[in-house]
Structure formats: structure tokens, C-alpha cells
């Protein structure tokens, strides 16, 4: 590109942290915003002055950003060598009590001399909005789970109360029969049979309830 084109591009993006590197990764033009923040702690990858190897500057960034530096150097190198047209990477920088997030984008120049445009954009507000949205989703999901458990507990209580109430009623009737003289054995035997039947019903309900988690796990295993 001609000097006029370079100047126009820089003026158009003067509010952004933008740099232009040649095919070797050497900084050949930087915006005013880049110059103002080149020596600050955030963003860490807005570093290097004109004539410096930007990739080498990235490698010298604070060791706590080594993983980001590795990804950034690899991505920019791929763009400069023509293996990729565009590269994007988001990284966090320490700033007080909360991190500040930046989005790095690298766009290849379609020209014989090669090179690329590198821009760093503050995306902290977007990240915070995403975090708030995720927290709200988690809260809604938690409320839904609590409601589902409450409904299930109410249903279980209703189902179990029937055989349990019947058992209690029959046990009280049996206690009254035992006090009679002579004891009506046939009636007592019938009541005890009903108690056993109600007990089996309650046991079957509990068995079905216990099997629910296993059924859920089998469904998850089938899906995934």
C-alpha cells in the first residue's frame, strides 16, 4: 500500500489499538492509541515500537500470558506465511479486582509485499454481559430443578400416603380386634393380608423412585 493509504487506514482506526506489520512481522505502522498504551500493563500484547519484531515482542510478554503468547505468535505467523487469511484470539489482562478482556484480530494483506493488520479491541463489557447472561441462565435452571424436585416430592408423598394411610387404618382395626373375646381370627387374618398388600405397594413405589436416576443415566448414555 502507498503511504497515503497507510495514513488513511490509521486515521480511520485512530481510536483503536492497531498496528501494521510486514511479511517478517516487523512493525511498520502503529496507531496513536497503540502508541499511548504500548508501555502500559494492559493490554499486554499492545507492545513494540516501529521497526521491532512484533512476534519477538509477544514472546517477551509477562510469563503469566505464555499460553496466550504462544497462540498469538503461532496465529500471526500462519497469516504472514499465507496459511491463514485471518486469525482471532481473546485474552484477559489483570486490571484491579477484575480482568479486562481483549480481542485480537489479524487480517492478511492481499498484496505482493505481504504483511498484516493487527488490532486489539476491548471486549470487557461484552464478556461481562455474557457472564451475567450465563449467571441468569444458571439461576433459571436452578429454579427449574428445585421446582421439579418439589413437584416430584409432592407426587411421591401423595402416592406413598395412600398405602401408608391404609396400613395405619388396618393396624388400628387389628389392634381393636385383638382386644375382643373371642378374637375374630378370620377378620384379623384378612386385615393382616391387606396390610401386607399395602406394604408391597409402598415397596414397589419406592423401587420405582430409586430406579429413576438409573433410567436418566441410561438415557444420557444413549444420547451421548
Total strand segments? 5
Largest sheet: 5 strands, antiparallel
Radius of gyration, taken over Cα atoms and rounded to an integer in Å = 36 Å
Mean pLDDT: 79
Amino- and carboxy-terminal Cα gap: 52 Å
General shape: rod-shaped
Q: Return the structural class.
A: alpha+beta
- Which spans of ≥5 residues are poorly predicted at pLDDT below 50? 220-224
Across the major sheet, the strand order is 2-1-5-4-3
* Strand and helix order: HEEHHHEEEHH
Helical percentage: 55-70%
Number of helices: 6
Binned strand content: 15-25%
Commentary on this structure:
It is built from six helices and five strands, in the order H-E-E-H-H-H-E-E-E-H-H. The protein has helices spanning 3-12, 32-37, 54-59, 66-80, 124-178, 185-223; strands spanning 17-21, 27-30, 86-95, 98-108, 116-122. Strands 2-1-5-4-3 form a five-stranded antiparallel beta sheet, sandwiched between helices. Strand 1 (17-21) and strand 2 form a beta hairpin. Helix 5 packs antiparallel against helix 6 (185-223). The radius of gyration is 36 Å and the shape is rod-shaped.
Task: List key phrases describing it.
five-stranded antiparallel β-sheet, 5 strands, alpha+beta, disordered C terminus, 224 residues, 58% helix
Give a short summary of the structure.
The protein is of the alpha+beta class. Helix content is 58%, strand content 17%.
Topology record:
Blueprint: H1 3-12, E1 17-21, E2 27-30, H2 32-37, H3 54-59, H4 66-80, E3 86-95, E4 98-108, E5 116-122, H5 124-178, H6 185-223
